[in-house]
Amino acid sequence: MSDSLRTRLIDVGVDLVTSEGVHALTLREIARRAGVSHGAPRRYFPTHLELLSAIARRGFTELAARGSRAIEDSGLGMAEPREQIAVLGRVYLDFALTNRGMHELMFRHDLLESNTLGLREASLPVFALLVDLVGRARPDADARVVAGSLLANLYGIAQLWSWGSLQLATGADDFGPLLDTALAAHLGPEGR
Question: For residues 46 and 39, what is the distance between their CA atoms, to the nearest angstrom?
Answer without folding.
Answer: 10
